[in-house]
Amino acid sequence: MLVRSNTLWNDLAEVQNEFDRLFRWGFSDGVSSHYPPVNIAENDDAYTVQARVPGLTKDDITIELEGRQLKISGEHKRVEAEYAREERANGRFERAFTFRHDLQTDKIEATVKDGILTVKLPKAEEAKPRKIEIVAK
Amino acid sequence: MFGLTKKQEETAQVEKTSAGADVTYVPAVDITEGEAGYTIFADVPGANKDSVSVTYDDGVVTLKAQSVAEAVSSDLIRREFRFANYERAFRVSDDVDADKISAEIANGVLQITLPRKASAKKTIPVAVK
């Protein structure tokens, strides 16, 4: 047996983890729509979505684009074993984002490296801001 | 069961601001326990082989990692996580064979294997008088 020292901070960390788990995975349906956490950047040319997906490879993640909606789904698979502690994400997830601009669907690039998923979504040409020349008459 | 140590107390505030914009997370872990020993799986996304360290000192295993992934940090319209440092420590029991602790990292998950001492499995009969 391993010794466990209980302190206030440990308890708080555990409560925090438990809350994270519940909010991520919900109470019943088993498919999380709040996972994975993402950062989204936007500039004139493109959106970039980065998601925190530790343990997943490209084969575990599905990326779909329908119009302006990006859907990221997949599943965390867990090794069969006796668990002394379970804090990491587990099970299926599906999360969707709708963007404000039309996208170039054929130019979307997605990569996953070291547990970070990066999706680049270039905006459609007509959606990009344009400078309008003022004609002096 | 695994214990957390003093180091952990210091970092247990889920996000701790240190120098600059750096934050240190307490990584989420799964720990499995079997006949052969224990395995810790820690989520350290963004970290790789060159940015993690695992140390054992006087019954305490400490993992430290740093996210070195290329982070998009300008023009953010939504931010739900940070590219951070990770640190967590575990007190391990006497039946762990410290010399045989090993670690590997893949896809942002650090796996630390803590084998039990061979002798720990032996049952010693005690003569009752």
Task: Characterise this structure.
The complex is a heterodimer of chains A (137) and B (129). Chain A is mainly beta and 137 residues long. Chain A has one domain (28-126): Sandwich (Immunoglobulin-like). Helix content of chain A is 13%, strand content 38%. Chain A has one helix spanning 8-25; strands at residues 31-32, 38-42, 46-52, 61-66, 69-76, 83-86, 91-98, 109-113, 116-122. Chain A has a four-stranded mixed β-sheet with strand order 1-7-5-4. The longest helix of chain A is centred in the N-terminal third of the chain and has 18 residues, at 8-25. With 129 residues, chain B is mainly β. Chain B has one domain (3-121): Immunoglobulin-like. Chain B is 5% helix and 43% strand. In chain B, strands 1, 2, 3, 6, 7 and 9 form a six-stranded mixed β-sheet that branches. In chain B, strands 4-5-11-10 form a four-stranded antiparallel β-sheet, with no helix packed on it.
CATH topology of chain A: Immunoglobulin-like
CATH architecture call of chain A: Sandwich
State the share of residues found in helices of chain B, binned by percent. Answer: under 10%
CATH fold-level assignment of chain B = Immunoglobulin-like
Biggest interface, CB < 8 A: A-B, 46 and 50 residues
Strand content bin of chain B: 35-45%
The rough form of chain A would be described as elongated
Average of pLDDT of chain B: 84
Strand content of chain A: 35-45%
The count of domains of chain B is 1
* Helix content, binned percent of chain A: 10-25%
Low-confidence stretches of chain A: 1-5
What's the CATH class label of chain A?
Mainly Beta
What is the count of distinct domains of chain A?
A: 1
- SS-based class of chain A: mainly beta
Global outline of chain B: elongated
User: What is the chain-wise order of helices and strands of chain A?
Assistant: HEEEEEEEEE
What class do helices, strands and sheet pairing of chain B give?
Answer: mainly beta
